[in-house]
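Request: Give me one sample?
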Amino acid sequence: MFYSPFVPFLIMEFLMERKLLWFFLVSWEIARLQSTCAIHFRVKPKRKRVRKCRGGRRKIRKIKVLTTLRHQNRYSGQISYNPGNLIEINIINNLSSKSTCKESFRIGLFNARSVGTDEKRTEIKEFVTDQAIDILFLTETWLRPSDDEIKCADLTPSDYTINSFARNSRGGGIAVLAKNSVAHRITYTSKFTFNHASFELVHATLVLHNQTINFFCIYRPPPSRKNKLSFTLFLEEFPNLLDFSNSITGKTIILGDFNLHFDQPNSPDVSKILDSIQMFDLMQTVDKPTHRCGHILDWILHRRNDDILRTTHVSHQLTSDHFTIVCDLDLFVPSPPPTFTCKRKLSSIDNCILMQDIKQCLHSAVMFTAAQLDSVLRSLLDKHAPMNNCKVSDKKCAPWYDNISDTLRAAKMSRRKAERRWRSSGLTVDKEIYDSTKKAVTTIVHNAKCAYYSAKIAESSNTKQLFRITDKLMARHSRTPMPTKHLNELPELFSNFFSNKVQTIRDHLDKPLSEVDQDSPYAHDKQFSGCPLNSFTPISENSLRKIILQCAPKTCELDAIPTPLFFECLDAILPTLTIVVNHSLLTGEFPLIFKTAIVKPLLKKTSLDSEDLKNYRPISNLSFISKVLEKVVLSQILQHINCNKLLSDFQSAYRPHHSTETALLKVTNDLLSAMDDGKISVLVLLDLSAAFDTIDHEILLHRLHNVFGFGNTVLSWFQSYLENRTQTVVVHGKHSTPASLRYGVPQGSVLGPILFILYTQPLSNVIQHYPVFHQMYADDTQIYKSCRPSEIVDTINSIEQCISNAKTWMFHNKLQMNDDKTEAILFARKGLATEHLPKSIKIDDTAINFVPMLRDLGVTLDSSLSFNQHVMNTCRSAFLELRRIGLIRKYLTVDAAKTIVCSLVLSRLDYCNSILSGSPKCLIQKLQRAQNTAARITLRMPRTEHTTPLLRMLHWLPIPSRIAYKIDSLCHTALTTAYPKYLSELLNVYTPARPLRSSLDPNILKIAAARTKSCGQRAFSYQGPINWNRVPGSIRTVEEKDTFKRHLKTAIFSGECLR
């Protein structure tokens, strides 16, 4: 047998190649010791080994430990164990190559290359929670500046906060996920004094333990012809960032996607950047590829002397063309102090026992006051559901994890095992196995979330529950943004601001206009003539029950018991409540306990600055029982007002058969008819400052008595209702000092709107003294007039005089007109020369320029009344809602999707759509596309599916038919009830000059004459009769409104109404 001295070396080389040398050497050493020392080695039963896992918990892994068998036990067959050989080894997550202190602060950097898919967002959330990341910086999110709230909410774990800084154009974008324990310590900015057009930049400042850490996250897009960027520009602008970071206090970390190959330091571009970095004493710590092509594109820069960075490692767990960088910082985040809150466990209440206690307490007394009723209900609530001090948990786990905990744990173990195998072998097949296990984990979580929300939506028993779930999915926040400064003082700041604002206006209004001005606020009041309302009629239990059941079950902290519980115990409370209500009506006293209001500041528009207090309006929350009492009073005074026809015909707010649509339909009809005659028109919209808050109580009571006939007990009741009222501002659960209300009516109350209408009733009389037209809806007043182009100067003068006198009347009645928000527009037919026409109108010393378009009662009016901009705005908002619904459609049933689409989309398409009657088909087609998309999303059909059968399946009328349906309904209301009066006057029954077959039908309307198709034939006086006469005669004779609408819709679907 041939033997060569090179054979052992060949064997060793082979074993090393196969990674088996260690096994060979260990086996040989064991055999040698057994033969010489009589010491036997065996594998001891598996010992537990600690491993870090999801949520910061520690998991035990079994490891093998070698022990010895002494020769004295060799023949006994027993095994002796040496506990000293068993050592617990703490290991960190398999992504880290170095030990990490549990007190370290962990940040991450990941180029997501779009977070648009559900799987990618789920994967990022799982990674953040598994690795206990404190701050994760995301680049290339591809989020939009707006309309991506759903994606942001879906991307954010339960105990994290997201801040997105999107690019204005497609692509790019930076987002920061921060744990709630540190989120309040971070401030962000994306605006700098230096230029950085070549890269996106976000500065996050973290203040922790009197240390300031400045994180600068950047994303540098690759230069291309499209973005017209270059490395030269980046080389000019990047040192500005370095200089800025060097000039501010605190430690600095610059991280992001530089799109430069750090692994090629000899490259001219990289060497120039490295020179700049070294100049500012910065170093780059990522030493492994961060891109799948093997390059280091994502950098972490920090100062050498800061000594803040402990470890840096690269993770392959997330799916993208970039890898994730995880860094441990030398920071310690203290655990926040425990938070406690007081709660009642309402679910533990036995309703039967509670009702028995209520009956026993309430029925024992013959007479109960409102204060006594409130006290009894509160004491019973404390007895059955006492307030408990509960600790608020900081760790919030998604509810769908409970059902998949074991499956998810096993899947993650398989993923870690596959990752170790791939890292050990480096083979492509192991990498593919690892990717499949990652996808399996994401799929499990994603499917569990879908199943959870689908079940919740299917179980929702009413629309309120459905919208509560979908609002959460669509990231519709019910909370209004609040200022972030002086958090502890916000309630007092808001309370003082609201009070001082009203007082400042009143101080200005209390001064006389001039020395000779002696005009009275009652100069234009019309004295009441008729049967006065001197007393209220007591209400029965059944009538009160109907009013209560019609109320929304909303509750606030002023309620003695929560409103849902009040409804369940209504049978026991109703008799006593009827006594309390009737006692208030008969004595003319509004209970003092109901005069307190909880005020919550509401941001007027989401686009306004939330830090400025003037952008908020006070909204009053009143107790439920007080609103029930107000509804009882409202029903009786409305009956008195309507029977005596006390309201102006031009006031459309809070009146039956009136709406914003009827008011706008009248205005547009007059403007289109004037344009059809070749006239031009001027429209002015008046605006009031704090209209509800400055009402003078003395003037209001005088007007209720002399103009509307309220006397004796009724007048005393309203006087009691207005006096001694207080309000408390509540922000973040903190209360301000109660402030007394000397003026105004509470916003959010039931009687507030109708009292304002009655207070401003004489304003219509003031305007009618001038040759102008007007329409009013609450505090929105529209004044307009049409004329020939040669008469424009006189027309403007008459409007100016009218507004000047209206402003004087407002001043005497303690109302302030806001000249800055008053708008004016000039309407003229296309082709008419308007260069020589005036450009503004003048109110006192303020010039109000004519604008090309304005928003009137929610409808955008342009100078030619084409409604192009209005349709564009409607379609934009409709498609925005459809996009949001599309993102959550997978959770919804067909019925739920139909309910949401009808509420959020079709309601927008139907709002004031009667003014579009007669518009060009190209304009209507834009709205039809939105409806078609809504039908496809509701039924989950592809874009290529024809929509006509889908609309029939959903029982939705197409847009042209919906417009005609609205016109016919308005005509039916105007003909059967004669309201609104300003619309019924436009409809005249057709009476032929000689006997005709049409004479047999008395419900045919006369069509108004029109010259042009673009103006006259779009007016309601033309479109109303045209559409009404097409309705079958058997349907036109139906008087009941609901029956008429039902038959009309059936006729349109069957084709009986030719359109």
